[in-house]
Design brief:
Radius of gyration: 16 Å
Largest sheet: 3 strands, parallel
Strand content: 5-15%
Shape: globular
Oligomer: single chain
Number of strands: 3
Number of domains: 1
Order of helices and strands: EHHHEHEH
Structural class: alpha/beta
């Protein structure tokens, strides 16, 4: 959505995180730095890119216990949720400046153990939200997105 304005609404299912933290030594799982984009942090942080999607509608879903509910996994899960909430709060300021607060929605769920999942109840809420936010967009007005 950040790079293609033709995308009218979007959903991130357990996919919003701080890129800087994602590759840090304190990350829950060590990541392969080959996927990092050199120089990206010099331009901004994840919340900055997320905020630039405004005013287009976006929904975030995140399990409360993505890494697990016991021991270190619970600690990592709580940190991951807190990180997402911080990014959401920072991006929300951009949405508020655009008078589009209602276009930024988030669901933090505990269903199915609150893990890295897209449980049926969250899926139903998300699809209803997408239907509502896309109902005013005529498919004939949308340009095709290449590569899909």
């Amino acid at each position: 959505m950040f790079v293609d304005s033709r995308i009218k609404a979007g959903v991130s299912s357990c996919g919003l995180f701080s890129v800087l933290h994602f590759y840090s030594e304190s990350a829950a799982k060590k990541r392969l730095a080959a996927f990092a984009l050199p120089g990206l942090a010099a331009v901004g942080v994840s919340a900055d890119y997320f905020g630039l999607i405004s005013p287009r509608p976006i929904m975030l879903t995140r399990g409360l216990w993505e890494w697990g509910q016991t021991g270190d996994e619970a600690t990592f899960s709580k940190k991951h949720v807190a990180e997402t909430q911080e990014i959401e709060a920072r991006a929300r300021k951009c949405y508020e400046c655009d008078s589009a607060s209602r276009n930024l929605q988030a669901i933090y769920f505990d269903e199915n153990g609150g893990n890295h999942d897209f449980p049926p109840i969250v899926r139903e809420q998300t699809y209803a939200w997408l239907d509502q936010n896309l109902q005013h967009t005529s498919s004939s007005k949308l340009a095709p997105v290449s590569g899909l």
